[in-house]
Design goal:
The complex is a heterodimer of chains A (112) and B (115). Helix content of chain A is 0%, strand content 62%. By secondary structure, chain A is mainly β. Chain A is globular and about 40 Å long. Chain A starts with a strand and ends with a strand. The chains are: A mainly beta (112), B mainly beta (115). Chain A binds chain B through residues 32, 34, 41-46, 49, 51, 57, 59, 88, 90, 92, 94, 99-101, 103, 105-106, 108, and chain B through 4, 6, 33, 35, 42-47, 50, 52, 91, 93, 95, 97, 100-108.
Chain lengths: 112, 115
């Protein structure tokens, strides 16, 4: 069966520090991968999606970047965090023919 | 551009009652999918129910059912015999069929089931 792992679950980082959130999927090949951000009391905003290794599409210009070094690995990064980067980050995956997105447990990021 | 609107920020009902959550959307697409996701306090996003736009029959999943009105671009969720475990944020989401499965989300409705 397919599973998705996302870590860490919580993270407190000072302003100006780097960020690396990792997401891995097991049990499927060539998934579409997504990073979403959820601000407090709000819906989800798509940040990045990837349809293959090294292929990243950005939906919102910002302080963040994403990379996909392996088929089932998706990394969200920042060189210097801003206070506005605080939020709940969710990784998700989907595959062709399965019209549904499956979500990780999420990472609560607090920038102080 | 597609948009999804949930006009009820918060709702509360007594346990065992029936509750309906509203969702409207705007699109020029003809083929698409609509979803209701549940996000309990654990923050895990869980799919509740899915509706294909080309299907006229409303989707049902046990106590959960939808009222899909394509012409009106309305997609409401009905929860029957509500349970305490139904307490969560509920999100309506839209997906174009040819969009790399990207989801567009409403702002959510906080549903509280009271004992």
């Amino acid at each position: 069966s397919q599973t998705i792992h996302q870590w860490p679950a919580t993270l407190v980082q000072p302003v100006g520090s780097p960020l690396s959130l990792e997401c891995t999927v097991e049990g499927t090949s060539n998934p579409n991968l997504y990073w979403y951000r959820q601000a407090a009391g709000r819906g989800l905003q798509l940040l990045f999606y990837s349809v293959g290794i090294g292929q990243i599409s950005s939906e919102v210009p910002q302080n963040l970047s994403a990379s996909r070094p392996q088929d089932r690995q998706f990394i969200l990064s920042s060189k210097k965090l801003l206070l506005s980067d605080s939020g709940f980050y969710l990784c998700a995956w989907s595959v062709q023919g399965v019209n549904e997105a499956f979500f990780g447990q999420g990472t609560r990021l607090t920038v102080v | 551009a597609q948009t999804v609107t949930q006009s009820q920020p918060e709702m509360s009902v007594q346990e065992a009652e029936t509750v309906t959550l509203s969702c409207t959307y705007d699109t020029s697409e003809n083929n698409y999918y609509l979803f209701w996701y549940k996000q309990p306090p654990s923050r895990q996003m869980i799919l509740v129910i899915r509706q294909e736009a080309y299907k006229q029959q409303n989707a049902t999943e046990n106590r959960f059912s939808v009222n899909f009105q394509k012409a009106a671009k309305s997609f409401s969720l009905k929860i029957s015999d509500s349970q305490l475990g139904d307490t969560a944020m509920y999100f309506c989401a839209f997906m174009k069929t040819a969009s790399n499965y990207q989801l567009i989300w409403g702002a959510g409705t906080k549903l509280i089931i009271k004992p």
